Amino acid sequence: MSLDRLNPVELSPPTGFSHAVAVTGGRLVFLAGQTALDAEGKVTGATLPEQFEKALTNLLTALRHAGGTPADLARVTVYATDVADYRAQAAELGGIWRRLAGRDYPAMAVIGAVRLWDEECLVELDGVAVVD
Questions:
Q1: Using an 8 Å Cβ cutoff, are 17 and 107 in contact?
Q2: Angle formed at CA 90 by CA 99 and CA 63, multiple of 5 degrees
Q3: What is the number of other CB atoms lying within 10 angstroms of the CB of residue 88?
Q4: First to last CA, the chain
Q5: How many of the other CB atoms lie within 10 Å of CB of 72?
Q6: What digits encode the pLDDT tens for the residues 4-50?
């Protein structure tokens, strides 16, 4: 299985994402949206960085149980209740991503959401991975 991250020079330089990810071989794993819920189903963290870290940890936990690693992520979608706040904290969020998932960025999008399932949640992440 291989994931080739493609970032054409004709496109703007990617920061924290890849423009395209081509996959050869492997098994597709679809990862449900994860928020900052703990094992008891309670929302943790009051700030966007705290919730982002927990949501990403939850996503990576689901991926690990499917036999994958962060490098296997082909696509991640981030749903944020405040995109301006997300952009303002992008450097810190990027640091959290690199610490937990490394520097192999999947194809990504950030989408503004009026609210998420649990009203206290500020961010949700879902994804698609390709696992051997």
A1: yes
A2: 45
A3: 12
A4: 6
A5: 24
A6: 999 999 999 999 999 999 988 889 999 999 999 999 999 999 999 99
How many separate helices (H) and strands (E) can be counted in the chain? 3, 6
3-class state of residue 44 by DSSP:
coil
Half-sphere exposure of residue 93, counting CA atoms within 13 Å on the CB side?
Answer: 22
pTM: 0.92
Report CA torsion sign: 41, 64, 54, 81. Answer: negative
Sheet of strand 107-112: strand arrangement: 27-34, 123-131, 73-80, 107-112
